[in-house]
């Protein structure tokens, strides 16, 4: 029963360090150190540096700061205003009205940003005041925004998928392309919810939108052209295979700089701020990844992941049962941890299990993303809740309740993904066969 | 605060920020290397070792910014218990700074040791760049040392003044999610 | 002696024949020592990645490990002896070359705190193409995947356009025409279903790189004689079994390529001759960096 003894030790030290507020990357170093000292006579510090150097200097990781930087630049442009201007004329008369600009805006911005919170702040800084002005129910505004912003993680680019791809050593480009269709399906589900809620909700009584002639609407759509060009350049270059994920990210940074320059938003101050912001955010992720690299080595020495995978195989869980167990496990973890930590903490243990039962590893990446999206809006630790709290001044409880229907929709999305795995696997497989 | 203490404070803060600026330069360097790689491919010119160079800049960018990032509150931590401590928060902060100082000192020690051995053993990259690894790894060791200094700095500051220099950065932390 | 556990990092997946062979070796050692030395294999880079295994074993972070030795040719040109293109282009020639190099390699590894145990070759490297190739002239301008100094040099000699592509991105690069040709073993082609993009496989047997298993010298010295004997005997057995296995597999991979519609053939006489010329050039270049030891090996190989 040595592996289970190991689990006990690991979990105890992990909870102790994480729970007491030690920065996550350093806490992981601590846990890994304890594991190394207890289970192997190998020199822990040297082995630590071997894996930390390897993971920190990984070429595929460079996509991470580039996509973060791109988002930081776009945040400082007029992009969100333009998106609202371009989208609003089309959405105004739909059932659910301008609430759809939350979903559509997040879907579009998700295609140029790798982060959920960045999507939330960029889209929200425009839609929240506009929707409030028009008397939309606050609960629906906040809830749909909190949910739809998580599309930032699923629709490529995606920081979560970069971290996942680096951890399992699979093509990030493939993972990105796998997220496209599920992202659009999830966006559609959110829109269906907006329609339903607008019919059911008693407080739904927004100011009517003026009707615009069709050609005026088309003319207003010109505001969407720059962002659509950028999306085409970034995702298109990956899909067509002319660029790897990292290269697409570099194209994205240059494109965003060009867009900012065209809008006159590219001041020295903006450039410097966006760069320093990207520097900090990518360093933050890098510290977690460094800790996780050591932890996964340490677990390798204990034999724990393999033992667990063999145990899972021995109790003959079906794929569905295994996924349900993992779903519950991840939802609980997601209440207390951020998405990136959830991914890196679990992947060394979960990857062997997944491969053992024959689940497609690319598909599982999308599964993980939905679960991490849920984590964004579950209290007590949910970053979209924090961000919205800062933006609107509402209490965590109010925001979490407003976002709860979105949590249920994501649960539904998990089931849809399990029922129709092709949603995530068809496009990447097809991409490979294209001539 | 007397003059000497102020000078130490200023120099330390300058070191943290200066390292972060270097780190930002590394991000720009990554952009340049990757763009050059794309352009070289279009033009059919081989650019040997581009992936390795991008990787070295990645490691340098990360490690050199660790300290500055921590002071700005952008490194993620689980703050539930700390907040619940209320008036006794000092002890929680002391505990987590002590653990973090120990962990980062350990990291710094072995990072420096790694560079030393890469230099002693003449280790070179296995890629086409054939870079001596000690050169590529030095920024990582420097960054790790600066991080350790920063954490010990905060630990001492907390003990002396009752509070550390770390900003509350929930907004910063959210950027990665 | 009390029971000891050795963790053995390996770079390739557990189902790869090298990994299976090493697992058999580990079992053999366990039985041979009556359980006093247990070797636990960690396949798929789950402990250390391929790039780090040699250094990890050198410094005692792992007591034993397996590594594609030619990846370390930057450190010592001798390590690249098995990967000089078109020098030894069959299993027999490769065995001869390895026998000629063995002593010098063991000495070089020993100087790096490593004890040589055994080595098993990969299937020979062939040329994947999208069209008929009868001579080097047909290769001119073809977009060719280069991933190290040797493949870049081949591209240069043949007048091909080198494109640097990582292994993980290879199938996508092929799908989209970023590359139209590459050199690799039949196994790679089967694993990546290369017939979806390319049409020809020329079995040029460019080189047969080897995975080498080595032990940390301090860990080795600390062993009792019985354990050392067990490792040596099991290592010899693993080398022989591995060679037999790879010969069997090589044919199978080529057959699979053929069954999926690829044209699999040996190079034409002219192509073979021109490639041999490249081999001469690249061997001469290698000799310049490999010094007297390298010269001695090549002379011993050619004398046979
Ligand atoms: Na995204
Ligand atoms: Na949560």
UniProtKB/TrEMBL annotation, chain A:
GO MF, any single term: transmembrane transporter activity
Q: Which UniProt keywords apply?
A: Cell inner membrane, Cell membrane, Membrane, Transmembrane, Transmembrane helix, Transport
Q: Does the keyword RNA-binding apply?
A: no
UniProt domain TRAP C4-dicarboxylate transport system permease DctM subunit: residue ranges = 12-423
Q: Does the keyword Transport apply?
A: yes
Where it sits in the cell: the answer is:
Cell inner membrane
Q: How does it assemble?
A: The complex comprises the extracytoplasmic solute receptor protein and the two transmembrane proteins.
What's this protein's function?
Answer: Part of the tripartite ATP-independent periplasmic (TRAP) transport system.
Family statement drawn from the similarity comment of this UniProt entry: Belongs to the TRAP transporter large permease family.
- The protein, known as: TRAP transporter large permease protein
Give the taxonomic lineage as stored in the record. Bacteria, Pseudomonadati, Pseudomonadota, Alphaproteobacteria, Hyphomicrobiales
From TrEMBL, chain B:
Where in or outside the cell it occurs: the entry states: Cell inner membrane
Domain of life the protein comes from = Bacteria
InterPro entries reported for this sequence: DctQ, TRAP_DctQ
Question: Which GO-annotated molecular functions does the record name?
Answer: transmembrane transporter activity
Q: Name one GO cellular component term.
A: plasma membrane
User: Which keywords belong to this entry?
Assistant: Cell inner membrane, Cell membrane, Membrane, Transmembrane, Transmembrane helix, Transport
Primary localization: membrane
Q: Which Pfam families would you find in this protein's record?
A: DctQ
* Residue ranges occupied by any Tripartite ATP-independent periplasmic transporters DctQ component domain in the UniProt entry: 30-159
Write out the function statement from the record: Part of the tripartite ATP-independent periplasmic (TRAP) transport system.
Q: Which family does it belong to?
A: Belongs to the TRAP transporter small permease family.
Please report the name of this protein according to its UniProt entry: TRAP transporter small permease protein
What is the source species? Answer: Allomesorhizobium camelthorni
